[in-house]
Specification:
Strand content of chain B: 15-25%
Oligomer: heterodimer
Number of strands of chain A: 12
Order of helices and strands of chain A: EEEHEEHEHHHEHEHEEHHHHEE
Number of helices of chain B: 13
Radius of gyration of chain A: 21 Å
Largest sheet of chain A: 8 strands, mixed
Structural class of chain A: alpha/beta
Shape of chain A: globular
Number of helices of chain A: 11
Largest interface: A-B, 44 and 45 residues
Helix content of chain B: 25-40%
Radius of gyration of chain B: 21 Å
Number of strands of chain B: 12
Distance between the termini of chain A: 34 Å
Distance between the termini of chain B: 42 Å
Chain lengths: ~325, ~325
Amino acid sequence: MSNEYLVEVKNLKQYFPVRNSKGKLVPLKAVDDVSFAIKPGETLGLVGESGCGKTTVGRSLLRLYKPTAGEIWFDGQLVTDKNMHEHRKEMQMVFQDPYSSLDPRMTVEDIIGEPLDIHKLCKNKAERRERVLELMKTVGLNAEQATRYPHEFSGGQRQRIGIARALAVNPRFIVCDEPVSALDVSIQAQVVNMFEDLQQQLGMAYLFIAHDLLVVHHMSDRIAVMYLGKIMEVADSDSVINHPIHPYTESLLSAVPIPDPKIARTRQRIVLEGDVPSPMNMPQGCPFRTRCRYATEQCAAECPTLTDRGNGHFVACWNR
Amino acid sequence: MSEEKKYVLQVKDLHTTFVTDSGEVQAVNGVSFNLEPGKILGIVGESGSGKSVTAYSIMQILAENGRVTSGEVLYNGEDITKWSKKQMTGFRGKCCSIIFQDPMTSLNPVFTIGNQLEEAIRLHTGKSKKEAKERAVEMLKLVGVNEPAKRVKQYPFELSGGMRQRVMIAMALACEPDILIADEPTTALDVTIQAQILELMQELQHKLGMAIIIVTHDLGVIADMCDEIIVMYGGRVCERGTADDIFYEPAHEYTKGLLRSIPTAGNTHERLQPIGGTPINLLNMPEGCAFCTRCDNAMKICLTQVPEELQVGEHHRASCWMNVKQAMEEAAK
């Protein structure tokens, strides 16, 4: 197999057992048959509303959950329980909440140094310290901050610590799970730019998970749109944003608040009726059909699969 | 009409401080604005800008260590900061209501939706239990909750986030207040639900004609619905004007920087220009302009003197020394 793709996800399913109102165990289908691939150095944006399974996809990729079914290939190798430890040297994650993802009782040096210890990448203390300071410099932190604790830093700085920790093992792939959504607007741009700079310097691939479509559009080469555990549309980012095909993508885009009064006043909002159905009680057929204005009988009978509409623009919809 | 009667709410030079272990924090530092009946005012700012505290100061629902130290809040010309606790209880809900960011924690989990709605209605109107019940169902219908008669018997945990926020809005509007304050009303919601709630608020405003204050950090949320926008930083107002003024002719360095730093439909493939530095520390405020430590164009005077508000357009005012400098340069020509 050639290594055109760095990461390949094939028919990933992630079900969680939960009790329903009658106390019976039923599967909650957080991710239901998702496939995608990421090239080396590429950024794939993953968007969707809360509960659509985008975070679960990211976590399953790193085997923070054991997938119910499906395969994850990294650089031509199937990732299994056995070689997972080795693969985590190449795959890392940056978490959403810069407050809860850092141990409050560890100094910055120990936080960033922990992956070095786990993977035994440094021979001695001096080497470890040198590497930590180098990483801190890469993400724009001062060397004298190494002995401080997370609570002494602002949200943006903490996110930098989290990024330095992810970079420690020289990964080739980073899952960024909503890395800027907890930050103030004026700080978001700093962190977004840093992700872009690091990618240019180090050539990593990103899976960039976020709900802010404008930020995802800015960051990504391609974008995948998820709804209730399934990918609805995937294409290069300009196509998804400027020429969406799936009705869900259309309405999602029209709902995004645009910080430009003239555009905001003139555009048509497609307001979706109702709420996202519970993933414990998914509609038969296409999961979006209960809120879709184009829904037909076929949508209820059978779930559409992703088909190519030209130029690598994949859409899962019967009617568009 | 006299000046006071023209506005349903006037805030004049409001100062609010919090006493903390590390010292006194000046969260709101001389904020003034006027709100006309039936208008929508947007207050934007990042965390620590004092936008929410301004709202809480109006409602007098500050945390125990917080206090309005000076300034006036005039409701139809009357200074409510001098009102008694009892008078304020009558004010909240009946004259001015507030909805919060998180619809889960602002509803009581152990009472039904109907119970909580009826309580608010009976507290402020002389309605009987039965009338209040009817009004509760009517309000839920107004805010677009499906099957309202069934919903009144449900508990908050049985509703989705968007539905809960609708219930909060129903509760806030049940006694037909003149002013509705929405503190980050859609921050906890998904974009498609956010669009529903914003649409609903606009629709209700047309129908019921109350004035609305929307407090948010998201410039996108207020781009198309506000009559006036106030930009806050470090407890002060840096700029005020119409949406077009703020978005197309920003006159304060902070607003300019903020607009450059967010991705929009137009600049997708350009590099973002972030505002440098770290967010403001209210315990260690600069002597002059609150933004001076992060401002690329800061001058000597910015470090030592707080800029005064200057008229830069018909409805557009900004507090930035750059404008004073520009005006002086033009005058010299």
